[in-house]
């Protein structure tokens, strides 16, 4: 995808609103993944903790890009509504909570892309579309991880399959 420079001049008031809401959701995701990583580590699941920390770092990169964009536009970044981290009794419950949050982030980026398209703001459309693409790919990874934990496991012993 072609990256357009940050536009100079007047910015439609919706753009800072989308950036601020996105920053709040990305920081909420950072907090959630950080909390969950510590929790699953305490449960004795170091591989799951490492994967959740990688998710946390990805969300931190998104927050950083949003912050840089806000500063380039001349306004102070403010994540106004940090959500509480959602936990659960087991890894599957945690991942379901993560998918809910990721789907909310995806919906926001979809809305922002469409709004920018209607406004004729190609630079911000590209910016939000790139974040959207990354979030969709990340969500697919979470869905696959969740599926791997919830699908019946089977063992093939000759001509008999055991679940």
What does this structure look like?
The chain is mainly alpha-helical and 163 residues long. The protein has a single domain, classed as Up-down Bundle (Ferritin), CATH 1.20.1260.10. Helix content is 71%, strand content 4%. It contains 4 helices and 2 strands. Strand 1 and strand 2 (160-162) form a beta hairpin. Helix 1 runs antiparallel to helix 2. 26% of the residues are buried.
DSSP, total strands? 2
Count the helices. How many? 4
Cα(first) to Cα(last) distance is 45 Å
CATH topology: Ferritin
Taken in chain order, the helices and strands follow as HHHHEE
* Average predicted confidence as pLDDT: 89
Strand order of the largest sheet: 1-2
Task: Please identify the top-level CATH class.
Answer: Mainly Alpha
Structural class by SSE content: mainly alpha
Q: Characterize the main sheet.
A: 2 strands, antiparallel
Range of helix content: over 70%
Supply the number of structural domains. Answer: 1
CATH architecture type = Up-down Bundle
Spell out the CATH superfamily: Ferritin, core subunit, four-helix bundle
Stretches with pLDDT under 50, minimum 5 residues: 155-163
Strand portion, in percent? under 5%
Radius of gyration: 19 Å
Shape assignment? elongated
Pfam family, one: Ferritin
Family: Belongs to the bacterioferritin family.
InterPro entries: Bacterioferritin, Ferritin-like, Ferritin-like_diiron, Ferritin-like_SF, Ferritin_DPS_dom
Catalytic activity: Fe(2+)(in) = Fe(2+)(out)
